[in-house]
Design brief:
16% of the residues lie in helices and 30% in strands. It is α/β, with parallel strands linked by helices. The radius of gyration is 21 Å and the shape is globular. The N and C termini lie far apart (58 Å). Strand 30 and strand 31 form a beta hairpin.
Length: 398
């Protein structure tokens, strides 16, 4: 049975297209829909998954090898047809979709070239697959995957009662986990469901249009306006106006300001009245910074806002241009628009930047996490030090 195979989610070369989010996590730890990619595999009776990722992440995200392992591409979103195919994959086969290796079995990790040279039978998967291959896939695919996750998370379960101070419009459900709170809010489920996680709170005066997910122990502050498809990960606080955005976890946008078509990593903070543009004035296709190509690339999208890596912050009244990528542990402030690509560990804004020295960045991360009674783990310190070194080539003081 599939759940008896030792399952390993492997990062291929495409991981670099998902930087800066994957500087600090394997691809399988990306949140999209309600859950992370790794958590989606648990819906299919897979007891556990480990990771095959880059060396500096492997201490926090280790690989657990057995004699016979099923290696699955970590960018892949599971469905029942795919799971059935993987269940029948034998040791001499490689499952592909075009030039993407979807899965293979073996005693150790192998590259695409190694798999081809070992005489395996290559099977082209005949059905469509959903893969997270680009940064913008996280918000463009969030609608579909939020709906899929909602059905799985709530299957055969009964919602906690919703207070009659709230108003619900539409044919989809609003599902509340145990300990969730919502008072004097409007939930419009005409376009999709609303999910409120365990211990989460939606404060009074909030208006939400589904599909929407507020994960465990997160808060939507008073009077917020949120459009689907939006996911607020665990332990976040959000307010103001949000449209088609994904927060991973432990990040805050607690005040007024607009955020749209955006992805926010962990331990980020957006100052009061921060706004991002998600549409160019000439309505042209948005370009976004791509690390492996070392240049901006066409997204094919008319709407594309902000991508922000872990531990980055911005001051009050910060204005982000359309299609801005902010790296890890950047600190942005000042008047005017910062440039569309802000490398990791920079401090400043449109008036110029200085290097955010690693010891100072670690000190800030420690203070921020201590506010939530969490100690900055040694493994995270090591990861951030590695990211500081890896991103040195992008930093220029001005």
């Amino acid at each position: 049975m599939f759940n008896q195979k030792n399952t390993i989610l492997f990062d291929d070369d495409n991981r670099d297209n998902l930087l800066p989010l994957t500087y600090t996590r394997p691809v399988a730890e990306i949140r999209i829909g309600i859950t992370t990619i790794k958590e989606k595999w648990h819906f299919y009776d897979i007891a556990s998954c480990s990771y095959h990722t880059v060396a500096y992440l492997s201490k926090k995200y280790p690989m657990e090898l057995a004699e016979d392992n099923l290696f699955i591409n970590s960018c892949l979103i599971p469905d029942q047809k795919l799971v059935d195919t993987l269940d029948n994959l034998n040791a001499k086969e490689v499952l592909r979709k075009g030039d993407i290796v979807l899965a293979y079995r073996g005693s150790k990790p192998e590259s695409s070239d190694q798999l081809s040279s070992h005489g395996r039978n290559e099977i082209d998967y005949p059905d469509e697959v959903v893969c997270i291959r680009n940064l913008w896939d996280i918000f463009t695919l969030n609608d579909k995957l939020l709906r899929d996750d909602y059905l799985k998370v709530t299957n055969n379960r009964i919602s906690q009662p919703l207070s009659d101070t709230n108003q619900v419009v539409g044919e989809h459900q609003a599902f509340l986990e145990e300990g969730a709170k919502a008072e004097c809010c409007i939930f419009n489920t005409s376009n999709g469901p609303v999910y409120i996680g365990r211990g989460a709170e939606v404060m009074e005066g909030t208006m939400i249009r589904g599909p929407f997910a507020l994960c465990d122990n997160s808060v939507v502050k008073m009077g917020a306006k949120i459009y689907g498809a939006t996911t607020i990960g665990p332990h976040c606080k959000v307010g103001g106006e949000i449209n088609n955005s994904v927060f991973f976890s432990c990040s805050n946008k607690a005040h007024d300001g607009f955020l749209g078509n955006a992805v926010i990593g962990e331990w980020c903070n957006l100052g009061a009245d921060t706004n991002n543009s998600n549409l160019k004035n000439n309505y042209a296709v948005v370009k976004l910074w791509n690390y492996p190509r070392n240049r901006f690339v066409d997204t094919g999208l008319q709407f594309c806002g902000l991508i922000m890596g872990d531990h980055s912050k911005c001051a009050i009244n910060t204005m982000f241009n359309t299609g801005t990528v902010v790296g890890v542990s950047a600190n942005i402030y000042g008047s005017g628009f910062p440039r569309n690509f802000v490398p990791s560990f920079l401090w400043g804004g449109s008036g110029g930047y200085q290097v955010y020295k690693i010891e100072k960045a670690l000190e800030t991360a420690e203070i921020v996490m201590k506010r939530r009674n969490i100690t900055l783990p040694d493994m995270d310190v090591e990861i951030l030090r590695n990211v500081f070194d890896l991103t040195k080539k992008y930093r220029k003081e001005s």
